[in-house]
Write a structure and sequence with these properties.
By secondary structure, this protein is of the alpha+beta class. The chain contains two helices and five strands.
Amino acid sequence: MREQVEKASILLSEGGHINLTISIGVAPLSSDSSLDGCLAAADRALYRAKNSGRNRVCLAYEDSRLSETG
């Protein structure tokens, strides 16, 4: 998804165009975790992606280690 957004070019009505990038934070939701905990972990991973240069995907794991791709 991140790569497809980066490749897309949005045409503006004035004739120009813009390119976008996105940062994504992902966290697993297991049967023994809460939705709030999962969202908090994904949010932390998202901000790590943004602070690491943006246009990245960071994964949050149950043991609180974070991994990034991008």
